[in-house]
Amino acid sequence: MDESGSGRQREGVARPTSRDVARRAGVSQATVSLVLRDRWRGRVSPARAEAVRAAARELGHRPNLAARSLRLGRTRTVLVVVPALTNDFFGRVHAGAARVAAEADVGVVLYPSPEGVGGAPDPFASASATLDGVLASSMAVEALAQLSGDGLPLVMLDSEPVEGPAAATVNPDIAEGMRLVTGHLLGLGHRRIAHVAADVDSWTFAVRRDVLRAGLSGVPGARLVAEERGPVSVAGGLLAAGRALAASPRPTALVCDDDTMAAGACKAVRRAGLRVPEDVSVTGFDDLGLATAVEPELTTVRLPAEELGAAGLRALLAVLGGERRGAEVLPVSLVARGSTAPAPA
Measured between alpha carbons, how far is 306 from 242 in angstroms, rounded to an integer? Predict the structure, then answer.
């Protein structure tokens, strides 16, 4: 298939029209309009509707957003892509974005992408989504190639601030967050530290790993005694922390990439017959609601999740208004609670 079939238009090649889609699918333009506006049920057979959608995908056809907006007099609509709303962090990111969108009279279409770093399916494949821009959180840029390939303005949250399809990035200061954790534990006298790391190949977790390693390397006697990876879940943290605690010498502190993993790490410490924080200190990241639901409560890095979503939506609206935006970094803070204490003698 050539580039026009992949959803990316070559320079100088006319944008596919509904007439082209109708010709490819062997139907009328009226049928194409019904299907792409998701009003085909009861008027068009499912097989014919799928033929229209397939033709649109093959040709890389997208709605003419500007023309449709003028014709319908509608408000703008943006797509918000998050890995999963079951996570408290992403729920708050969405809440912040939705609040700013409501203030600006902008519609929001929520589009969960459970894999997070995998390729995001094309929302146009199943219905006609009349979109003006995309706000995506915690995903690799290349995962959104399908969504951004037609020139939709894209703003990335908690993602690598690099040159690419994103018109802007808004990130919490992940590096500073891990520096705060490392400094906190070193200040408590910990020198044998293990990393309970997320088994996710993404920018945000790579930064945590690199900053932790760098922070320990500059302190005499400090060392990373283990680095165990696992899924971002309580069970993942439990298993990874269990392996880390088996290291020799045993770590006196477990640095976890996420609060849910930290909750699992606390369970692993107790199952090993040890105590948190008297024998092993545990830290998290994010400051989810879970951080104060466990006992002892978690020392963690507070990320401004709701402000992240709000700042991202504001950046997207600015881009839609013709402004040039770059990389914005939001401050974070360390919340010291009961899961950390001075290193045991």
Answer: 33
Q: How far is CA 102 from each of CA 72, 97, 98, 152, 313, rounded to the nearest angstrom?
A: 20, 9, 6, 21, 11
* Nearest one of 259, 266, 307 to 287, comparing CA atoms: 259
Phi, psi of 271 (to 5 degrees): -65, -25
Low-confidence ranges of the chain (pLDDT < 50): 1-12, 65-73, 114, 116-120, 124-128
pLDDT at 43: 80
- Residue 117's pLDDT is 45
Phi-psi region of 189 (alpha: psi -120 to 50; beta: other; left: phi over 0): left
- Give the SS3 label for residue 55: helix
Which letter, b or e, does each residue of 304-343 get, where b requires 16 or more Cβ atoms within 10 Å of its Cβ? bbbbbbbbbbbbbbbbbeeeebeebebebebbebbbbbeb
pTM of the model: 0.74
